[in-house]
Design goal:
InterPro entries: Spore_coat_component, Spore_coat_U/FanG. By secondary structure, the protein is mostly beta strands. Helices cover 9% and strands 45% of the residues. The chain has a single domain, classed as Fimbrial-type adhesion domain (Immunoglobulin-like, Sandwich). The strands form three sheets. It has a five-stranded antiparallel beta sheet, with no helix packed on it.
């Protein structure tokens, strides 16, 4: 009878938990990334550049029901604002932008930032039971066409990824 009560209690927790309400015992999350790779870019070719990468979030816990998470991306090391993200090659710069899923099925449709201004965070809810759960969120990048002041070479930037969960 004890097992039945425990099972019924667990069932009551599932049935009574409002959607996206967190209930997690000993939960922890880690994040890793696959960098956005733009490949070769011709600044006078008239075509925009594009690339994609991923943010991977893995959460573990004893039991977690609908653990909300939110992923925000920083401005990068060289951009002053989210609208001015820049990659560097010494003193040379290339402007770029990062996009994420709007949550309503629009892949790479919103500027991925911290939720301020015209940016959005990317998130949702995870169900964690014993072995944990992993989500992968695509990051899309664009390089505007005609950045004619670009010099040949490799460009890079570092963007901070922050995962918030409760």
């Amino acid at each position: 009878m004890k097992a039945l009560r425990a099972l019924l209690l667990f069932g009551a927790l599932l049935a009574g938990a409002p959607q996206a309400q967190a209930l997690c015992l000993l939960c922890s999350c880690t994040a890793s990334t696959t960098p956005v790779a733009f490949g070769a870019y011709n600044p006078i070719g008239g075509a925009a550049g594009s690339g994609s990468g991923n943010v991977h979030v893995s959460c573990t816990g004893t039991v977690g029901l609908f653990v909300d998470y939110s992923i925000s991306l920083g401005k990068g090391a060289y951009g002053a604002t989210y609208n001015d993200r820049q990659m560097a090659n010494g003193a040379a710069r290339l402007t770029y932008q990062l996009y994420g899923d709007s949550g309503s099925g629009g892949a790479c449709s919103v500027v991925w930032g911290d939720g301020t201004g015209a940016t959005s965070t990317v998130g949702g809810s995870l169900l964690i039971v014993l072995l944990g759960s992993t989500i992968n969120r695509q990051v899309c990048g664009t390089l505007p066409a005609n950045q004619v002041s670009a010099t040949p070479g490799g460009y890079s930037d570092t963007v901070q990824v922050v995962v918030t969960y409760n």
